[in-house]
Write a structure and sequence with these properties.
The protein is built from 5 helices and no strands. The chain has 148 residues and is mainly alpha-helical. α1 packs parallel to α5 (134-146).
Length: 148
Amino acid sequence: MNTLFRNKAFLIVTGSDLLQNLAIWIRNMAILYYVMDRTQGSPIAVSLITVLEYAPIFVFSIIGGALADRWNPKRTMILGDILSALSIVMIIGVLSSGYWQILYVATFVSSIVSQFSQPSSLKIVRRNVKENIFSLQLLLHRVVNRCF
């Protein structure tokens, strides 16, 4: 385990994933509460935002994993992070313009982007971690991704 925590690629990618997942979780909770506030707690509005957050996970995780194996993982992660940041800018712009319903589209797009960048991070770590500690790395990577 000591060897794993000395691995620079593991520390950078896992730390980045942890921060990204935390930011996504905070953003999703903020959007959920905002939608609840704007719709006076409408069950349909809350259900729709929840479905738009989680449906891409089921649909695009297989596609994202397959494409992440073919694409350059570093570029895919960087592009995913840039698109995720742009989605935050888009959300702020939407909120300031008063057209809050576009949050549904922004949430859906952001959830799709995550399904491409997360498998790429696992691939980068897999390339840089020795085979004898890979199972431990995989366990820690899954824990970080499932906390949020």
